[in-house]
Each structure stands twice: as structure tokens, then as C-alpha cells.
Write a structure and sequence with these properties.
The chain is an alpha/beta fold and 152 residues long. Helix content is 47%, strand content 13%. It contains seven helices and five strands. It has a three-stranded parallel β-sheet. It starts with 6 loop residues before the first strand and ends with a helix.
Length: 152
């Protein structure tokens, strides 16, 4: 809302999250820029993420990877995420998105997202996180392990 752009929230609402949702998210739904979509399936993610200006990931835990970040990048969508867990390792600053520390930083970053080249976001995804890239990396690890075993 502070960034002045519409926000569409897609999330699974677990029973354990109901109080948080009722106290923090539900009141925001009254704002004309806020739309709560609810849970979306894999068949809907490409369109949802691909049509977004950016993915906003305001995590406050040490996320070990953040699959949703690479799902967004696969669609060419930049990511704005808080500096927690693996976020700084997954995002390429000012290329695939922005790593932020504060809400003010996030608002500024959202405004900068339209300047990022969406084709380049997709290219970085391909270079770092595609299935082919991951398979090559696994093969490299396996070869290193077998080479070490043979040397013993």
C-alpha cells in the first residue's frame, strides 16, 4: 500500500495461521489496493507470478532456500525479499531483484522493479536453477565423491 501499487496476496491459510490472518491480514483487505486470492495451485502459479510486477517476500525467518523466489524468477518476475536465510544467496542484487532490510527499503525496491530486465531475470534463473543446471551440479558432486573414494 505504501508503494502505491496493487498487491495480490496468494497464500495457503493453515489453521495455525488463522489468528495472524484475522488480526493482521483480514483488516488490510478493506484497502482498495489489496486483494486476497487465497491458495493457488501449481497450474495457476505461472500466470499469477508471470503477470506480477514483483514478488514481495517479507520473511522474518531463516528460510533455507525459498522455492517461491526461483518460481518467480522462472517467470521473469523480480523478487523483493528481506535479508533472511538464503535470500542473499538466491537473489542477484539489482538483477533478479532486491534484498532489503527494512520496510522503507522494500517500498523503494518495489519502485525499482519495473527497471529490471525480465528476460535477464529469466536468464539468471536458467543459469543458476534450471533442472539441467541442477542435474549437472549433482553429477559434479557424484564424480568428486567417486574420485575421492577411488583415491583412498
Amino acid at each position: 500500500m505504501r508503494a502505491g501499487v496493487p498487491i495480490r496476496l496468494a497464500a495457503k491459510l493453515d489453521v495455525v495461521d488463522k489468528d495472524y490472518f484475522d488480526n493482521h491480514v483480514r483488516p488490510l483487505r478493506q484497502h482498495p489496493l489489496v486483494e486476497f486470492i487465497g491458495e493457488i495451485g501449481d497450474d495457476e502459479k505461472g500466470e499469477f507470478l508471470g503477470n506480477a510486477m514483483a514478488l514481495l517476500l517479507p520473511i522474518d525467518w531463516a528460510e533455507p532456500f525459498g522455492m517461491v523466489m526461483i518460481e518467480a524468477m522462472a517467470c521473469g518476475t523480480p523478487v523483493v525479499a528481506w535479508r533472511r536465510g538464503a535470500v542473499p544467496e538466491v537473489l542477484d542484487e539489482a538483477v533478479t531483484g532486491f534484498v532489503v532490510e527494512t520496510l522503507d527499503d522494500a517500498v523503494t525496491a518495489v519502485g525499482r522493479c519495473p527497471d529490471l530486465d525480465r528476460a535477464r531475470v529469466r536468464q539468471r534463473f536458467e543459469a543458476r536453477f534450471s533442472a539441467a543446471r541442477m542435474a549437472d551440479q549433482y553429477l559434479r558432486v557424484y564424480r568428486d565423491l567417486t574420485d575421492r573414494s577411488a583415491a583412498l
